[in-house]
């Protein structure tokens, strides 16, 4: 979902890896997995045989906050896309984004479709025609059934990439242009929210824009921690972002809600995402430089793609089929999805990503 993070060295062209950002990506992915396995209702209830509330009486309330891992991802994405797009021509930026997203995504769509088509799997597969449309990553705007439940976030990512490419990468990245992009998008998103025009809402994404913009602002902080405009972008983005998160996820008034998230809890998780990326931007976590975090970062995207739907199958097989307790089932399901993610990274992403990037970069 997000390109491997690197930190520019101002004294030499060589770049140093920001491994703490890799670790944060894995934390965000595990938050989302906890939400999908134990923090919500829906089809995972059929996998467990009863509500996750019954499986995790205490933890389910905390798992319900795991959906905010998506907002953390968006902040990271803003940071990394600004970093990777800085000084890069448009064709190279497009080739990098497409080659990063598509190989694992295509395999995940095919894999989930094939597994759900098996007669012993109780979960419903999408129609073959819809599965083919899913290969384009445009199923969301086309109103087609989704193979991967998490792909709605990729649709948000793609729109961010297009906006950033047109407004920053195409004319050439500079501090002034990035600041104007952040300020302009913030204002335009507010106007879109006020106008209630569906087209503006689709293009400008007022609900998610603050998180991408906040990440971009934090990259400016990373380049110059004394940049007052960058800090202003981050502060405004947090204030608006927590508002949208609370408005969209606070459900205490709903008597049928799976879990009653508190406004304070939601704001705290959003603040965690911003503060964690801020700490990385300022270099406070440079000592978190363990090599295994590189592997963790590489597994995050394929894990994110496959964990939800294939996790249902594994949960059902372990908990209902083998009778394993809830805690062991949860842990083994996460472990099996991480193993599958490693296999996808090793045998899909590593060989195909550079080939696709090279082909797209050379194409006229």
Layout of helices and strands:
Elements: E1 6-8, E2 15-17, H1 19-38, H2 43-48, H3 52-55, H4 59-63, H5 69-85, H6 90-116, H7 128-134, H8 139-142, H9 151-169, H10 175-195, H11 198-204, H12 209-223, H13 228-249, H14 263-281, H15 292-321, H16 326-362
Antiparallel strand pairs: 1-2
Helix pairs in contact: 1-5, 1-15, 5-9, 5-12, 5-14, 6-15, 6-16, 10-11, 10-12, 10-13, 12-13, 12-14, 13-14, 15-16
Written overview of the protein:
There is one protein chain. The chain has helices at residues 19-38, 43-48, 52-55, 59-63, 69-85, 90-116, 128-134, 139-142, 151-169, 175-195, 198-204, 209-223, 228-249, 263-281, 292-321, 326-362, and strands at 6-8, 15-17. The chain has 16 helices and two strands. With 364 residues, the chain is an all-alpha fold. A hairpin with a 6-residue loop joins strand 1 and strand 2 (15-17). It has a two-stranded antiparallel sheet with strand order 1-2.
Give me the count of strands. Answer: 2
Class from helix and strand fractions:
mainly alpha
- What would you call the shape? globular
**Rg over alpha carbons:** 20 Å
Count, helices? 16
**What's the end-to-end separation, in Å?**
26 Å
Main beta sheet, described?
Answer: 2 strands, antiparallel
Spatial order of strands in the largest sheet:
1-2
Spans with pLDDT under 50 lasting ≥5 residues? Answer: 1-15
Order of helices and strands: EEHHHHHHHHHHHHHHHH
Mean pLDDT: 92
- Beta-strand percentage? under 5%
The percent of residues in helical segments reads over 70%
Brief sketch in words of this structure:
71% of the residues lie in helices and 2% in strands.
